[in-house]
Amino acid sequence: MASGTVTESKRVTNLSVTTNYGRKVLNVYRVSASGTEKIKVSFCTDVDKSVIVHNFEKRGWVQVGPEDDWNFYWAVTQSCRNIFSVETGYRMDDNQSIIHYNMFVEEYRKSPQSTWIMKPCGKSQGAGIFLINKLSKLKKWSREAKNPFNPNLTKESYVISRYIDNPLLIGGKKFDLRLYVLITSFRPLKAYLFKLGFCRFCTVKYDTSIQELDNMYVHLTNVSVQKHGEEYNSKHGGKLSVHNLRLYLESTRGKAVTEKLFANITWCIVHSLKAVAPVMANDRHCFECYGYDIIIDNDLKPWLIEVNASPSLTSTTVNDRILKYKLIDNIISIVVPPDGVPDVKWNKCPPPEALGNFELLLDEELCAQEDKEFSSGKYRGLSSKWK
Ligand SMILES: Nc1ncnc2c1ncn2[C@@H]1O[C@H](COP(=O)(O)OP(=O)(O)O)[C@@H](O)[C@H]1O
Ligand SMILES: [Mg+2]
Questions:
Q1: pLDDT 10s digits, 176-221
Q2: 13 within 8 A of 123, measured Cβ to Cβ
Q3: Residue nearest ligand 1's atom 18 by CA
Q4: What SS3 class is residue 278?
Q5: Cα–Cα distance between 83 and 207 in angstroms, integer?
Q6: Given the CA of residue 127, which atom of ligand 1 is nearest to it?
Q7: Helix residue spans in the chain (DSSP H)
Q8: How far is the CA of 253 from the centre of ligand 2 (A)?
Q9: Ligand 1: does its nearest atom lie under 6 Å from the Cβ of 220?
Q10: What is the residue with the minimal CA distance to atom 6 of ligand 1?
């Protein structure tokens, strides 16, 4: 995949697919060290971003090509498919898409006043997204898609979801959260949340009127969309830290509801992972860094919008660069044993000081140990409340 142009992964139709189709095994590492022998760690990357390369070089690792003998590979989906020869598996055929359309019509009839958001499966970063508020518009769009002058359109699958039309606004503007989650194992589930998440704001005020339905500066919070707007501020890049959001909410809505909101966000993340854990490939050599998109509505209810398997590592501001550098740095500290050499036999229990800005969300292995200790009276309570 073209280096330097890889930003965010393609949209997947559904996180809970029953095969691994659509899953992106982001990062792979492999061990060539044996015993205590000191080796030079070699890395390979498909993503030619300085936040990645500088982090590896800082550790004295040497860059090699994918065909060479690497210890650590920051790979995009296609490379992983090649490496593991993963079956591409299940794909929808025409009939199935008709079945899904009927399901949508049923859903639509339950709440005909709702607005819906359509997202092409093969795109990301807000590309090709549009909103509809009438079934007739969807029918018109589908007829147009079948236009013989536009034959490619018929091949594209779309995800359609209920549009959250009452987002929490700050300064009259819509925003969503981008949170990073590291998964070092799916079975048992071991997941960490990066505490330096941020909010991404729209550049123009939120407006639900029909005239603004096509105005993506009102509805889509992606930086890749907003940075083209006239009101885009390249200094702060339309971003606010989650930490500052928390302070803002504590002062405007109160501490208790803010606490509850953040607990619900973690609940959402943990349960989305538990939902897919049984069907994910659980290779001991792999870990994942997911980018979660979450919208908070005006009743302070969080909604999971999307989980990106290859979240964008493009830096738009100075703070952004610092944050993403730390993200990669912290990830490496967690997934590589304390001696700095990738080792598949390691028990994946990083010491607390290796976590950096990550916090443990869930470690099912530790939970199981604690359960044992609990019954024997030695409970320590470290592995998370999300059992
Ligand atoms: N159901 C929804 N309700 C409200 N806004 C949404 C919804 N789905 C997506 N959005 C907005 O559109 C943006 C892009 O959608 P997303 O699913 O993240 O696709 P992409 O892969 O293009 O980033 C989101 O960041 C959010 O601002
Ligand atoms: Mg997104």
A1: 999 999 999 999 999 999 999 999 999 999 999 999 999 999 999 9
A2: no
A3: 306
A4: helix
A5: 47
A6: 22
A7: 50-58, 77-84, 94-110, 135-145, 216-219, 223-226, 242-253, 255-276, 318-335, 364-375
A8: 27
A9: yes
A10: 163
Contact 168, 297 (CB under 8 A): yes
Q: In what order do the strands lie in the sheet with 116-120?
A: 130-132, 116-120, 158-162
In the chain, list all ranges with CATH 3.30.470.20: 172-376
In the prediction, which pLDDT does 288 show? 92
> pLDDT value at position 127?
94
Atom of ligand 1 nearest to the CA of 129: 22
Q: Which atom of ligand 1 is nearest to the CA of 164?
A: 3
Decide if 42 contacts 74 (C-beta within 8 A).
Answer: no
Superfamily of chain region 172-376: ATP-grasp fold, B domain (3.30.470.20)
SS3 344: coil
Give the whole-angstrom CA distance, residue 59 versus residue 38: 14
Cα 196 to Cα 212: distance, rounded to the nearest angstrom: 32
Q: Mutate which of 132, 217, 220 to test ligand 1's pocket (most atoms within 8 Å of Cβ)? A: 220
Nearest CA to ligand 1 atom 10: 220
| Cβ(293) – ligand 1 distance below 6 Å | yes
DSSP-derived secondary structure letter, 199: E
CA–centroid distance, residue 10 to ligand 1 (Å):
13
Atom 12 (ligand 1) nearest CA: 220
Q: How many residues does the chain have?
A: 387
If 0-12 CB within 10 Å is exposed, 13-18 middle and 19+ buried, where does residue 144 land?
A: exposed
Give the position, in ligand 1's atom list, of the atom nearest the Cα of 125.
22
* Beta carbons of 173 and 201 less than 8 angstroms apart: yes
pLDDT (tens digit, 9 = 90+) per residue, 249-302? 999 999 999 999 999 999 999 999 999 999 998 888 889 999 999 999 999 999
